[in-house]
Amino acid sequence: MIDVNELTKRYGATTAVNRLTFTVRPGQVTGFLGPNGAGKSTTLRMILGLHTPTSGAVTVGGRPFRDRSRGLRHVGALLDAQDVHGGHTAVAHLAALARSNRLPRARVTEVLEEVGLAGVARRRVDGFSLGMKQRLGIAAALLGDPPVLLFDEPLNGLDPEGVKWVRDLFLRLAAQGRTVFVSSHLMSEMEHTADQLVVIGRGELIAAESLAEFSARGTRRGVVVGTSAATALRDLLAADGATVDLDGDQLTVTGLPASRVSEIAQRHRIPLHRLDTRSASLEEAFMELTAASVQYPAGESR
Amino acid sequence: MSAIVPVVEPRARLVDLVAAEWIKLRSLRSTWIAYGITAVVVVGLNAAIAVDTSSHWKPDPVEDARFVRDGIPLLEAFTSNSALIMMLALGTLGALMIIGEYGTGTIRSTLAAVPARRSVMTAKAAVLTVVTTVFGTLVATASFLLTQAILHSRNLGVSITHPGAARVVVASALLAPVCALVGLALGAVIRRTAATLTASAGVLVLLPLLLTEGSRWSAVAAHATPFHAWSRIVTPRPHPTPYPWTTGGAWTVLAAWALVAAAVTIVSLHRRDQ
């Protein structure tokens, strides 16, 4: 469980994160969404105690992470797949981390097998592709078998097979009762993975709710109607209070449900060859909600 | 599905962090290459001076005795130029131990695994001190034995039991950890590769070369640098100076640099964002 409470971070005059409050619960995958520069990485760093909040607080499992002397058994994190010395082998990188936390050396072999890097364990990380580095970062996060896992943009650089593997892994970790918090700037990456969403923009909370609730927010729900008498139907629907876009013999109607459109068409004996309710995609809902914030790049420090 | 069981954690020990830092240091091929090249250059340069001396030496019992009496064999056991090269190299190697982590971002992996930052830095300083002390001891001993063997072919060499000989070896050996710790401290504070290496070269090598015995403040400042402290210890018969100082003072200077550098290293990360 991660508890973020009124978390604020300023760098000089720039406010990267502003009074952020949300809770990430165990047993679910929670997506952490926001445009680039929204403050996601800054928030993740504050959760891990790497950056100190200007005000507010964040606890993991009831305690500030920095109060712990060793971290891997409490939180596993992949912040940036590039955060590894290229001169090390995969084994050396993980062995040093395992040793620092007094984890058995056997865990290194186990996690390398789990992420599919056992075959390149003794190769230097310099020669790894971004996808392989992502897998190495995930291996490091799994080392301590922690109840809380954080991943910052974990799908970058992965091939489709890798993306599927990561998604299945997240779902499996959540099903085991762990807290899984995954950031992304692309809604499409979260659509099939996350149960819950935390959406931020310009460092402020936009939404913290289930995926279903979030998708219902889209205002661009509409009804698509196909008819040979498009102009006539447009006038009738507009008279009933709808907003109608005309495109050839197709109308896009917002403000009226499909049942009402059908009723009006039937009453005036206008034949329809198409009648669909179109719900806004999650991506559209996300874009719409964050539209106001993307144009203000908040300083996301590296 | 297995349920999450409460976290059971063994007691945190500094020795595990020391072991982890040692794994990181020894797993880098560049570590071995850099220390190896430094050793070869320093020992080689010392030996080259000894070869030069002995090849130009015209045997003469009176001159031979004066050469030894004036302590020249000890000056050639570890020359000032070799010392400056070793200082430059060790300052860099010490700095690399931390700027390697900042440059690659590994520091975040390290600190996310071990939030106790002072413990991490203590372990780094400890591993660096041990490794560079071993390195310094090997290089200083090899330099002494090789140069004296070369000089001995002309009856100019001295043994380690010769007065002042052990002091040369020990002070030269300890110059390695002192400079490495200074590099580590500068790296931990500055974090950036180019700026750290410039600062390290400036503090360890350039500064002592600029300071002279010409005025009181300059002499006092010079005496406070590791290079002049080393020089004071290894020089059997120092030139007369208006501002004399003791070898005890020089040992204190070396110790103070090491301790202050270690202290700065340990506290440097504590309050800063990573």
UniProtKB/TrEMBL annotation, chain A:
One family name in Pfam for this protein: ABC_tran
PROSITE patterns: ABC_TRANSPORTER_1 (PS00211), ABC_TRANSPORTER_2 (PS50893)
GO molecular function, one term: ATP hydrolysis activity
Positions of the ABC transporter domain: 2-227
Gene3D superfamilies hit by this protein: P-loop containing nucleotide triphosphate hydrolases
Keywords per UniProt: ATP-binding, Nucleotide-binding, Transport
ATP-binding is among the record's keywords: yes
Record PANTHER family: ABC TRANSPORTER, ATP-BINDING PROTEIN
Stated family: Belongs to the ABC transporter superfamily.
Protein name, UniProt field: ABC transporter
Species assigned in the record: Actinophytocola xinjiangensis
TrEMBL record, chain B:
Protein keywords: Membrane, Transmembrane, Transmembrane helix
Annotated TM spans: 32-51, 83-104, 125-146, 166-186, 193-211, 248-269
Recorded superkingdom: Bacteria
Pfam families (UniProt xref): ABC2_membrane_4
Protein name as annotated: ABC transporter permease
Organism classification: Bacteria, Bacillati, Actinomycetota, Actinomycetes, Pseudonocardiales
